[in-house]
Specification:
The chain is an alpha+beta fold. The protein is built from two helices and five strands, in the order αββαβββ. Strands 1, 2, 3, 4 and 5 form a five-stranded antiparallel sheet that branches. β4 and β5 (102-110) form a beta hairpin. The protein is globular, with a radius of gyration of 15 Å.
Length: 114
């Protein structure tokens, strides 16, 4: 397509971007982890300062190398948080033609707003 990625975003260190994201009041939940990088215990956790501090060496604080994915459920642009809860964790292994990589997913379901 003739496009070129400029990484990291805005030329800022990724940890600084995470710190700014959290300081602005955004909230997210980790909904998928790549088992090559993170244990299943990271899945379903809130993406907060404790989560970032517990990341193993070499794991990108933004998850930009596919180590984990998040669901943003609250922040400055939200009228109210998206009420949800983690219903459980589910492992899935990709077919061999896609590398047979194992992932852990957090199954989310709606929850009554507090």
């Amino acid at each position: 397509a003739g496009l070129r990625a400029h990484l990291p975003l805005w030329g800022e260190p990724r940890r600084a971007l995470v710190d700014a994201f959290l300081a602005q009041g955004w909230r997210a939940r980790v909904v998928c982890v790549d088992s090559r990088h993170l244990d299943d215990a990271f899945c379903g956790r809130e993406f907060d300062a404790d989560f970032v501090a517990s990341l193993p060496a070499g794991v990108d604080a933004c998850g930009e190398n596919g180590e984990f994915h998040t669901f943003v459920f609250d922040g400055p642009a939200f009228a109210r948080p998206v009420a949800h809860r983690v219903a459980g964790l589910r492992a899935w292994t990709a077919p061999a033609r896609f590398g047979a990589v194992r992932y852990c997913f957090a199954d989310l379901e709606p929850a009554d707003a507090a």
